[in-house]
Every structure is written in C-alpha cells, then in structure tokens.
Amino acid sequence: MDSSSSSSGAGLGTVDPQLQHFIEVETQKQRFQQLVHQMTELCWEKCMDKPGPKLDSRAEACFVNCVERFIDTSQFILNRLEQTQKSKPVFSESLSD
C-alpha cells in the first residue's frame, strides 16, 4: 500500500510534456485575446465620438492609426522582452563564475 501511494505521489511531481505544451498554447491564446480586448477598448474610447450606422472617414482613419500604433507598441515591447530574456542567462552565468 505504501509503495502504490509513493508511486502515485511521484507521478504528481512530473508534468506531461503534451499537457505542458497545451497549457502554454492556451496561455498564449489568452494573452492574445487580452491584447485584442485592450486594443478594442482603447481605440473605441479614442476614436468613437458617437456611434452611428456607419463609420465616418475620420473615425475609420483613427481606428486604423490606433490599431497600427497598438501593434507597433506591442511588437516593440515583445522584442525588448525577448532581448532581455536572451541577455539574462549570460548575466546569470557571469555571476556564477
């Protein structure tokens, strides 16, 4: 009885690689959806004065510009984080020497 409980306890400590990949993919999807929601809310507040049956050319141009700036900013932040992550292991290795 003890051997079965210890083997099942050991199984809880390991994570199935497929499950871990699935969780990572779902987390990325959730982050993307949050970004789309933020972008929609931000651009709507900035560009939509009064909702109507059609977008006027000013509101349409504002939405296009807002979305492009949001994407540019998000890409810049992601690139910066990626650079930080790449340089981080090198920094920690130099500390251990």
From TrEMBL:
SUPFAM superfamilies per UniProt: Tim10-like (SSF144122)
Domain Tim10-like: 22-83
Places the protein is found: Mitochondrion inner membrane
Domain remarks in the Swiss-Prot or TrEMBL record: The twin CX3C motif contains 4 conserved Cys residues that form 2 disulfide bonds in the mitochondrial intermembrane space.
A GO-annotated cellular component: mitochondrial inner membrane
Quaternary structure (record): Heterohexamer.
Pfam families: zf-Tim10_DDP
Function: Mitochondrial intermembrane chaperone that participates in the import and insertion of some multi-pass transmembrane proteins into the mitochondrial inner membrane. Also required for the transfer of beta-barrel precursors from the TOM complex to the sorting and assembly machinery (SAM complex) of the outer membrane. Acts as a chaperone-like protein that protects the hydrophobic precursors from aggregation and guide them through the mitochondrial intermembrane space.
An annotated Gene Ontology molecular function: metal ion binding
InterPro entries: Tim10-like, Tim10-like_dom_sf
Protein's recorded name: Mitochondrial import inner membrane translocase subunit
Key words, A-Z: Chaperone, Disulfide bond, Membrane, Metal-binding, Mitochondrion, Mitochondrion inner membrane, Protein transport, Translocation, Transport, Zinc
Membrane-protein topology: Peripheral membrane protein
Family stated for the protein in its record: Belongs to the small Tim family.
Gene Ontology biological process terms in this record: establishment of protein localization to mitochondrion; protein transport
Keyword Thylakoid: no
